[in-house]
């Protein structure tokens, strides 16, 4: 097999990268009807598998789990996830032959062997679904021509796919039908019903392509969503402790700070997040983010370029072949960081204090969101997709850090995302070395010690105009307008 994207002429590459249409809510009027009475068999009861299955069942659909023999024999976590939630669990031989839709929710590294094992058992004309385009695009997996192949990709960690559904909302979702595998022309109906079943239609669904999804998803996770939050956590914690701030306070400010400041982002974009700061702090955060964007832009460009030309996938697959040596080594290193090893202190921090004492964190989120958005759209990703993949998903990732720090984030996201997060972190930590030397506690840990809270009006007007005029704010205003069911997280 070869990288499918690289076999295409530029014209088709651009066409596929540009597939992105925001779907009107009326297109989901049939709800889950196309899947009613159909057997949905999920392979892999992990982050996406369990949580998507819970949502689909609550939406009235018939969901069961086909697990690999050792998971059943050893009663592994995936077996516990499925059985403790009352799902039918069986082997591939038990469940696949009668399945109408097989949901491949195993790790990307396992997709080729899993699909090869399952395809011969699938009945004529069944449907195979993915939640990420890697296997089809980066590996060029060929699927039996009588099978329908679709993608329903939540732009969100598995745990929050469930959490937002339970709140009565959902998470932005990209759907696609693999053009080489839609023999009965039913792929779109199945994908739409699946997106309604997970609750994605309440947040927003894009008619996308396997290529557009994979080239944006890899970028989001390797930069703002996971990489920046990891790098920012480590740098901000070490700086605060170095400057004499109580380690427990520093740990708590970061662990819960990302969630607090990015909740403002989720509701009102970068503008609202910075509006939560005092005027002097807003200008300080703006200036820091501009500095960060200049320093980090080459790294964002490199990651996007490596994703587009297949270098990232090739390098990651070399690690797959090397028993995940880098992934496991970087995971172990992360666990040894001071931030991870310092529990959040038993100290009260008010919602506003997270902003006032987290100016640098706000600056890092602004810089990462804008850079990721700018770089994706420059590479041919359409604005709606870039918005979901940069701004909207950041608070959803921050929710995982609030639960159990970087450990929880890296355990909940896919192994592919975790690998990309560490790749970014390894490059960005040294890149920000000089920048961090000039950082003091007024922007992280203590807040500005303001004698004079006055600001220069011309500068403030300039900053406010710059905030509001960034393209991520324009598309964000439109897309958030369709999120009528958005709920507070607490
Ligand atoms: N994690 C996330 O939030 C997101 C993930 N995705 C995509 O969703 C898909 C699933 O990812 P994710 O939920 O993170 O996966 P997880 O790593 O959470 O879960 C994978 C599951 O698959 C099982 N599994 C592992 N290897 C095999 C194998 N060889 N054969 C059969 N089952 C196996 C594991 O169970 P056991 O080891 O017990 O057998 C585990 O339950 C991926 O394509 C990913 O890119 C998309 C969006 C977000
Ligand atoms: C959670 C999500 O959307 C990621 C980061 O793309 C992933 O886990 O692969
Ligand atoms: Mg993603
Ligand atoms: Mg991903």
From TrEMBL:
Keyword line: Amino-acid biosynthesis, Branched-chain amino acid biosynthesis, Magnesium, Metal-binding, NADP, Oxidoreductase
One GO CC term, this protein: cytosol
GO annotation, biological process: isoleucine biosynthetic process; L-valine biosynthetic process
Binding site for Mg(2+) 2: 217, 389, 393
Domain KARI N-terminal Rossmann: 14-208
Molecular functions per Gene Ontology: isomerase activity; ketol-acid reductoisomerase activity; magnesium ion binding
Organism: Marinomonas posidonica (strain CECT 7376 / NCIMB 14433 / IVIA-Po-181)
NCBIfam families: ilvC (TIGR00465), PRK05225.1 (NF003557)
Domain (KARI C-terminal knotted): residue spans on this chain: 209-353, 355-486
Residues engaged in binding NADP(+): 45-48, 68, 76, 78, 108-110, 158
InterPro entries linked to this entry: 6-PGluconate_DH-like_C_sf, 6PGD_dom2, KARI, KARI_C, KARI_N, NAD(P)-bd_dom_sf
Name of this protein: Ketol-acid reductoisomerase (NADP(+))
HAMAP family attached to this UniProt entry: IlvC
Reported cofactor(s): Mg(2+)
């Amino acid at each position: 097999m070869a990288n499918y994207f690289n076999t295409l002429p530029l014209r088709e590459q651009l066409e596929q990268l540009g597939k992105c249409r925001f779907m009107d809510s009326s297109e989901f009027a049939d709800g889950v009807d196309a899947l009613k009475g159909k057997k949905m068999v999920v392979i892999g009861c992990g982050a996406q598998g369990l949580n998507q299955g819970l949502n689909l069942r609550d939406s009235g659909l018939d969901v069961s789990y086909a697990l690999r023999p050792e998971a059943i024999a050893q009663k592994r976590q995936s077996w516990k996830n499925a059985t403790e939630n009352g799902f039918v669990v069986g082997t591939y031989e038990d469940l696949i032959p009668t399945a109408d839709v097989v949901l491949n929710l195993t790790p990307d590294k396992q997709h080729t062997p899993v699909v090869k094992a399952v395809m011969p058992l699938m009945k004529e004309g069944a449907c195979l679904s993915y939640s990420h385009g890697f296997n089809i695009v980066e590996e060029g997996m060929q699927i039996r021509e009588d099978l329908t192949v679709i993608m329903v990709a939540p732009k969100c960690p598995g745990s929050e796919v469930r959490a937002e559904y339970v709140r009565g909302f959902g998470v932005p979702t990209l759907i696609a039908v693999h053009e080489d595998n839609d023999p009965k022309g039913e792929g779109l109906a199945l994908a739409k019903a699946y997106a309604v079943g997970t609750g994605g239609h309440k947040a927003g669904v894009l008619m996308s392509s396997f290529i557009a999804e994979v080239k944006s998803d890899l970028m989001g996770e390797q930069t703002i969503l996971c990489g920046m939050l990891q790098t920012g956590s480590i740098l901000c914690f070490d700086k605060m402790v170095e400057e004499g701030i109580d380690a427990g306070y520093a740990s708590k400010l970061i662990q819960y700070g990302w969630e607090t400041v990015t909740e403002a982002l989720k509701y009102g974009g970068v503008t609202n997040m910075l509006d939560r700061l005092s005027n002097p702090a807003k200008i300080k955060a703006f200036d820091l983010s501009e500095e960060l964007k200049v320093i980090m832009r080459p790294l964002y460009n490199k990651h996007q370029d490596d994703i587009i030309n297949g270098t990232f996938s090739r390098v990651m697959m070399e690690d797959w072949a090397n028993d995940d040596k880098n992934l496991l080594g970087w995971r172990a290193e992360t666990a040894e960081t001071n931030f991870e090893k310092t529990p959040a202190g038993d100290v009260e921090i008010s919602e506003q204090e997270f902003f006032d004492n987290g100016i640098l964190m706000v600056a890092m989120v602004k810089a990462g969101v804008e850079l990721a958005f700018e770089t994706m759209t420059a590479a041919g990703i359409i604005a709606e997709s870039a918005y979901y993949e940069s701004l909207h998903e950041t608070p959803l990732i921050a929710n995982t850090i609030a639960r159990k720090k970087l450990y929880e984030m890296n355990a909940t996201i896919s192994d592919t995302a975790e690998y990309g997060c560490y790749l970014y972190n390894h490059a960005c930590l040294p890149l920000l070395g000089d920048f961090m030397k000039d950082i003091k506690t007024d922007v992280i840990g203590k807040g500005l010690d303001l004698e004079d809270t006055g600001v220069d009006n011309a500068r403030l007007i300039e900053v406010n105009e710059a905030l509001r005029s960034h393209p991520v704010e324009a598309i964000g205003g439109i897309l958030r307008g369709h999120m009528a069911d958005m709920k507070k997280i607490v």
